[in-house]
């Protein structure tokens, strides 16, 4: 047993042509940035004359994981992508059980599957506590929406900045893109399930 990991105290902001930070980016910019490769690059070009540059800053307040380090997990963390820890199936199982046995509010986790609705219909959800928010909507700025509008459109409460978002997809590629976009939207407590539904169901 080992303590739940404290995440990095930096997060990414995108600056486009010296304009405002990520929430002001256009949908096209979000969409392009989601698929910039490699993820570890400090910058990437998303259009003619438009370059995204990543910078970091210290967080102003302690993260959820910093305030809750007493939780023990037997599951493991893998390599980080963009400073976001990637978790294995054992850790994902524990997180889901934590939410099932308590609640989203008590556990502090919101688990989001970024696959398409048709993909989820084909396999089923990882668990009933997992929310669905396909990656294209995140790329269009869903995580920067007003809370009421978000709930009306997607059917669940928008993640708060005090919660830990756990992203999952089919094989860990789209979830990594979602994690990067969440960082740009100001979220700092993020986990990425690297196995996805391919590992979970098969």
Please characterize this protein's 3D structure.
- 33% of the residues lie in helices and 21% in strands.
- It is α/β, with parallel strands linked by helices.
- The strands form 3 sheets. Strands 6-10-9-7-8 form a 5-stranded parallel β-sheet. The protein has a 3-stranded antiparallel β-sheet with strand order 2-4-3. Strands 1-5 form a two-stranded antiparallel ribbon.
- The longest helix is centred in the middle third of the chain and has 13 residues, at 89-101.
- It is globular and about 35 Å long.
- Mean pLDDT is 73; it is low at 1-74.
Descriptive tags:
single chain; about 200 residues; five-stranded parallel beta sheet; three-stranded antiparallel beta sheet; about 35% helix; disordered N terminus
What is the rounded Rg? 16 Å
Structural class: alpha/beta
Order of helices and strands: EEHEEHEEHHEHEHHEHEH
Helix content: 25-40%
Largest pleated sheet: 5 strands, parallel
End-to-end separation: 27 Å
Could you say which overall geometry the principal axes of the C-alpha atoms support? globular
- Total strand count, please? 10
Task: Tell me the quaternary state.
Answer: single chain
Estimate what percentage of residues fall within beta strands: 15-25%
Strands side by side in the biggest sheet? 6-10-9-7-8
Helical segment count = 9
Poorly predicted segments: 1-74
């Amino acid at each position: 047993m080992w303590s739940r990991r404290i995440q990095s105290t930096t997060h990414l902001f995108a600056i486009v042509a010296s304009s405002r930070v990520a929430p002001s980016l256009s949908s096209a910019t979000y969409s392009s940035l989601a698929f910039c490769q490699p993820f570890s690059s400090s910058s990437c070009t998303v259009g003619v004359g438009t370059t995204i540059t990543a910078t970091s800053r210290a967080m102003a307040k302690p993260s959820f994981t910093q305030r809750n380090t007493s939780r023990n997990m037997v599951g493991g963390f893998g390599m980080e992508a963009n400073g976001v820890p990637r978790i294995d199936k054992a850790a994902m199982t524990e997180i889901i059980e934590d939410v099932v046995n308590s609640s989203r509010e008590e556990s502090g986790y919101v688990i989001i599957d970024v696959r398409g609705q048709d993909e989820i219909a084909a396999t089923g959800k990882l668990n009933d506590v997992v929310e669905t928010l396909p990656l294209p909507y995140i790329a269009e700025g869903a995580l920067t929406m007003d809370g009421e509008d978000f709930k009306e459109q997607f059917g669940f409460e928008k993640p708060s900045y005090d919660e830990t978002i756990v992203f999952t997809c089919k094989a860990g590629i789209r979830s990594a893109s979602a994690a990067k976009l969440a960082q740009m939207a100001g979220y700092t407590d993020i986990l990425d399930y690297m196995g996805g539904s391919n590992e979970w169901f098969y």
